[in-house]
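Hypothesis: this fold can be encoded by more than one sequence.
Test: take the structure tokens below, design a sequence, compare later.
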């Protein structure tokens, strides 16, 4: 990266290319792209490096259909767009894989945070490989857990569709002004 011109950054280029793709081509995700996504997840940071999650790569269209229909409320058609995806990555977290009980006592959800960090790495690797992704949060966690045959103590944290986009990315995406997102100096608290 050129310190004089931070706009010319490979990682920023990838971040800016990534968008929520909700329509996919039918062709499968190639094994080398899956390996790239797995490697990105492998190197994702986690609390105390415990990596308290597993990523399930689902390509069976009948299981994808079951997952798409597993909505918590409303019509099953709410996630119908997921049926076009040739792959769903499911981040499954487990508090049992967190190295000690203090986070549980404090109500911290490190396993969820760590799983989402891993999925963000997966998403950026997929983008670099020319794939589209979309975060899916509207699903019945217990329903999808049953579909995946999860063990007690495991939960589906987040889903992500993956595949080749069936249309061009949006030409322009709106973002808030940086002034709305960042605080350079926190407010001082007077005693």
């Amino acid at each position: 990266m050129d310190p004089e011109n931070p706009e010319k950054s490979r990682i920023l280029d990838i971040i800016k290319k990534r968008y929520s793709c909700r329509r996919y081509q039918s062709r499968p995700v190639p094994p080398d792209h899956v390996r790239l996504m797995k490697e990105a997840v492998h190197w994702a940071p986690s609390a105390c490096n415990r990596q308290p999650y597993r990523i399930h790569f689902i390509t069976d269209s009948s299981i994808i259909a079951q997952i798409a229909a597993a909505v918590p409320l409303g019509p099953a058609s709410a996630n119908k767009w997921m049926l076009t995806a040739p792959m769903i990555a499911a981040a499954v977290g487990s508090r049992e894989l967190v190295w000690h009980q203090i986070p549980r006592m404090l109500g911290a959800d490190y396993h969820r945070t760590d799983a989402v960090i891993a999925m963000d790495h997966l998403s950026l690797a997929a983008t670099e490989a020319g794939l589209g992704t979309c975060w899916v949060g509207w699903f019945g966690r217990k329903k999808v857990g049953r579909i995946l045959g999860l063990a007690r103590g495991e939960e589906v944290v987040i889903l992500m569709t993956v595949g080749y986009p069936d249309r061009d990315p949006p030409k322009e995406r709106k973002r808030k002004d940086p002034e709305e997102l960042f605080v350079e100096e926190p407010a001082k608290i007077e005693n």
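The mean pLDDT is 90. The CA atoms of residues 2 and 138 lie 40 Å apart.
Hypothesis status: open.
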